[in-house]
Amino acid sequence: LAEESECDTEGLSKIVENAKAIAETSETARELAALIERSESPSKQDVATIAELVVDEARDRFPDTTFVLDAPDGCVAYASSELQRAVTELVENAAEHNGSEDPQVRLTVEQDETIRLVVEDNGQGIPENELVPLREDEETALKHGSSVDLWLVDLIVDQSSGSIHFDSDESGTRIELELPREEVDRSDLSPFDGNG
Questions:
Q1: How far is Cα of residue 90 from the mean position of the Cα atoms in its chain?
Q2: Reduced to 3 states, what is the DSSP secondary structure of residue 118?
Q3: What is the pLDDT averaged over residues 2-11?
Q4: How would DSSP label each residue in 117-142?
Q5: Count of CB atoms within 10 A of residue 106's CB?
Q6: Smaller CB count within 10 Å for the chain: N or C?
Q7: How does pLDDT run across 12-69, given as a tens digit for each residue?
Q8: Which residues on neighbouring strands pair with residue 115, listed in sequence order?
Q9: Is the distance from CB of 180 to CB of 162 less than 8 angstroms?
Q10: CA distance 130 to 147
């Protein structure tokens, strides 16, 4: 009986865990749909301050992960007002899905002609099936990536007239967002133009 009870508890825990994951995915999908419908011009965003806020929150949520932040003051980009949401998704995903014994996440902000925000981790990498649709800038039933979060990040960066680059293998993942420092004329762009 004790063994049966233990199995039942374990099974229920998995059901609850899966239900929570489905609910979170549904919420992100709703946000994604709302973002697609919204037409908003990029505005000045203090990327260094956003990076600091995101890392502070992540340290509280993931106390077993080491976070390193390198973000000089004065890094301002023209970007979507949802930029903080995109950075939060990248940093939290890097911590949450990091299976390393000593999980580490580094967030770096650099500036020259553009602002570059780089999130790196020492996890096992993002599965290729989740990256292919983003690289090809399409989503089909056959190539549907399970991470709606990455689609959300991709859309926010696209709405910022920026670009996103992925480099991922079994030793970790590096994701770079490149954002303009000056306002970009988006009048000739469709809602889905940009680099994914």
A1: 3
A2: strand
A3: 56
A4: EEEEE-SS---HHHHHHHHHT---ST
A5: 19
A6: N
A7: 555 545 445 454 555 555 555 555 556 678 899 999 999 999 999 999 999 999 999 9
A8: 111, 179
A9: yes
A10: 7
Query: Residue 4 carries which side chain, given as an amino acid letter?
Result: E
pLDDT confidence of residue 141 = 37
Is the Cβ–Cβ distance between 157 and 194 less than 8 Å? yes
Determine the Cα–Cα distance for residues 55 and 44; give it in Å rounded to an integer.
20
Distance separating alpha carbons of residues 2 and 17, to the nearest angstrom: 22
* More confidently predicted of 119 and 35: 119
Q: Check residue 103 and give its pLDDT.
A: 95
Report the C-alpha gap between 147 and 18 in whole angstroms. 14
The tokens for 73 are: 């003051």
d(CA 170, CA 123): 7
- Mind listing the pLDDT tens digit for each residue in 138-154? 444 334 444 667 888 88
Answer for the pair 51, 69: CB distance below 8 angstroms, yes or no. Answer: yes
Q: Are 36 and 67 in contact (CB under 8 A)?
A: no
d(CA 103, CA 90) in angstroms, rounded, equals 15
Q: Which residues contact 130 (CB under 8 A, 6 or more apart)?
A: 145, 146, 147, 150
Look at residue 78 and tell me whether its pLDDT is greater than 70. Answer: yes
For CA atoms 66, 70, 75, 78, the dihedral sign is negative
Residue that has been written with the tokens 């549904």 in this structure: 26
